[in-house]
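Holo prediction — 5-hydroxymethyl-3,4-dihydroxypiperidine.
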Amino acid sequence: MAQYTLPQGSKMLAKQFTYGVATASFQIEGGVEHRLPCIWDTFCATPGKVADGSNGDIACDHFSLWQQDIELIASLGVDAYRLSLSWPRLITRDGELNQAGVDFYINILDALNARNIKPYVTLYHWDLPQHHEDNGGWLNRDTAYAFAHYVDLVTKAFGDRVYSYATLNEPFCSSYLGYEVGIHAPGKVGKEYGRKAAHHLLLAHGLAMQVLKRNAPHAKNGIVLNFTPCYSATDKQADIDATHFADDYFNQWYIKPIFDKCYPEIINQLPQAHQPDIHDGDMEIIGQNIDFLGINFYTRAIYRAHNEEIFEQLPPPAPLTDIGWEIYPQAFTNLLTDLDQRYTLPPIFITENGAAMADVIERGVVNDQDRVDYYQAHLNAVNDAIEQGVDIQGYFAWSLMDNFEWAEGYLKRFGIVYVDYQSQQRTIKQSGLAYRDLITSRH
Ligand code: IFM
């Protein structure tokens, strides 16, 4: 029987440490006919964009099965459930509330609260309503204001049901993957787009924080950022410099505006046409106080200098997960201590961590020892950071269950619960049982 161990006396073994599981609307809900189209519907419908040609029309059919899914979550003994709201389910084409969508989430929030499971709600996890994309999406400053309007309506409708709001999940992915390299929706490609989209996303975060402070002053409000720490391939100065540039471009770009109210210095090295349109007052809006910082970590990346492109990422060395990401837990500890030194941070929550593995289900059992090992190593890495003084108050496994893994479709499984997409049957994997045992063993 797999189990996770942490050193005796670890803060992660205390009841005050929050454990949860995480999902996102487009990845699990389905129920496509009950909402507006979003950019991921369009992207999925474009041949060649998603590895298995699939889409989010049904996904895990959480839209129909949410009650049993909440029982499943409760059975894991978690303190918290991190879900995201589907903007296109909550808002009509005219920018008004869609009451059916509101009711869907209110039922979920009430069911969670009734079971003492704290709802950690992400307001935007990539499913931008298509009509906003038709007006330029995150390249259009107006989208930031449309987001704040949506946040205003839903937070008023939800009252005090939500324990914590995160404005955005991983603006790096929305901007860089979606608008610079085009491997995520809406699939735009161009170096002139990524930084502009990022700025409007960060502005949306800041505007939404103003709304949250007004409408949900008792909730813990913040943002979720992902980090892929950058390591130099050699100790040659050119490689080290290139790696710093990559780190500023991929990681610090999204956190520095929030805590230092400015972009990294490399902004001055970018051609004018690649720079964001920053209006007076934007950085003040972006850099408001937040109650918590959500950090998502999966892997690291290795770089060396490149003549034309400044930096070049090298193929990751083994061991790899099923999605091809290196397993390197030391980078997790280093990331957390490094961010803690660089910035004056509020409490940190690890809002995502986990692994895609090539699971097999045999006689109703998924013996995912590889994922158990990944979690064990990464829980230790978080514990090491805590021991070094970093204020980390919670940890969410990504993901509650296997789901639609974006450009990989249903081919990559991140769940601690296995989903049979034909029957929609859920089976807790060994990694999930071990997680439950860790959580319920606390005192
Ligand atoms: O599935 C995603 C999630 O939506 C955002 N963070 C990374 C996960 C794994 O790729």
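READOUT: The mean pLDDT is 98.
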